[in-house]
């Protein structure tokens, strides 16, 4: 089920190709594995860091993101945020 989805997980959602059925394949993979879905959505949320207006907003956003990563229970994400 997850075979062939690595690049779909790394790709920006706006760049998924409908003709290749990439969006459906990604959604199926995320439905199949809850931990993978959590990590994927946290990765996508982290993209918003660049959109913060100033350093203070960026710091608050990153603190919130790290807290959610810790609460996810995913060992590797918890390790990154320590």
Question: Explain this structure to me?
Answer:
The structure is a single chain. With 82 residues, the protein is mostly helical. The protein has 2 domains: 1-32, no CATH class; 42-82, no CATH class. Helices cover 66% and strands 0% of the residues. The chain contains 5 helices and no strands. It has helices spanning 6-10, 22-32, 34-46, 55-72, 75-81. The chain starts with 5 loop residues before the first helix and ends with a helix. The mean pLDDT is 94.
Count of the separate structural domains:
2
Q: What is the β-strand count?
A: 0
Tell me the structural class.
mainly alpha
Count of individual helical segments: 5
- The string of secondary-structure elements, in order, is HHHHH
**Mean of the pLDDT scores?**
94
Strand content: under 5%
- Molecular shape: flat
Distance between the termini: 32 Å
Rg is 14 Å
Layout of helices and strands, plus pairs?
Blueprint: H1 6-10, H2 22-32, H3 34-46, H4 55-72, H5 75-81
Give a summary of the structure in a few sentences.
This protein has 82 residues and is an all-alpha fold. The chain has helices at residues 6-10, 22-32, 34-46, 55-72, 75-81. It folds into two domains: 1-32, no CATH class; 42-82, no CATH class.
């Amino acid at each position: 089920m997850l075979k062939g989805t690595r690049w779909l997980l790394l790709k920006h959602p706006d760049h998924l190709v409908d003709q290749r059925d990439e969006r459906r394949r990604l959604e199926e993979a995320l439905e199949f594995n809850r931990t993978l879905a959590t990590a994927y959505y946290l990765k996508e949320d982290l993209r918003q860091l660049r959109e913060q207006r100033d350093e203070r907003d960026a710091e608050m956003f990153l603190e919130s993101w790290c807290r959610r990563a810790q609460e996810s229970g995913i060992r590797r994400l918890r390790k990154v945020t320590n």
